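Protein record
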Amino acid sequence: MELTNYGVWTTQRALGSEERLGEAARVAERLGFGAIWLGGSPRLPQTRALLEASERIVVATGIVNVWQYEPALLAREYAQLSAEFPGRLLLGLGIGHPEATSAYERPLAKMRAFLDGLSGAPEPVPREAMCLAALGPRMLDLAAARTLGAHPYFTPVAHTRFARGRLGPGPLVAPELAVVLDSDRERARATARRYAHAYLRLRNYRSNLLRHGFDEGDVAGDGSDRLLDAVVPQGDAAALADAVRQHLDAGADHVCVQTVGVSGVPEREWGELAGALLG
């Protein structure tokens, strides 16, 4: 499975409809991205539309929420899709957030048990076909021990550097990076602030930012300018390409870029980023 250095990250909600999933995969593949990540806690069969519409691009989930699935069912769905599209489906798994899951408790134990269920299924999911949405050190360790590696979300470059140092040279580090492609500084920052609003109210993300260079003032409200510029960079394609490469320089293997503030398939935005990143 070859992710390459660059991918794109989107959701069915951002695209506007299930019918646009295939179009998004075709556009991403044509532009030269190595992977398209489907977020928004998808059900695995949703990836079929992306796989059928494309030929080579890796389709990854970012992430399947383990509170919303039974391992046996997920393993069955993975086995069927991977048989039809060998080497093209990466199963990103995540624990979600206590604010969104009433049953949320002992997240590390829950993830271990879920992975046990996947590996013990009649058709086990291979270790190299999975990654974990890991932020803290123990979840990063679990990602390295039981899967291909880690898919952090809403993180600064400092976290990518930390993750690489924690995991060593082998495991995958594939952060998501939200960006605003807009040269109007004031308007772009307002877009970034609207996007960050919900995430700064989630304890897991807020705590992670406090561990990696930010203080309570930065995470208060809709975020300080300093935090927004680090976690949701804004600017033209060249500036955003530089922000992406900073994660690679810090140890990322693959960065999946999410263009925020855009509705539908962001063909223009992805195209400009591909031009700046891939030449």
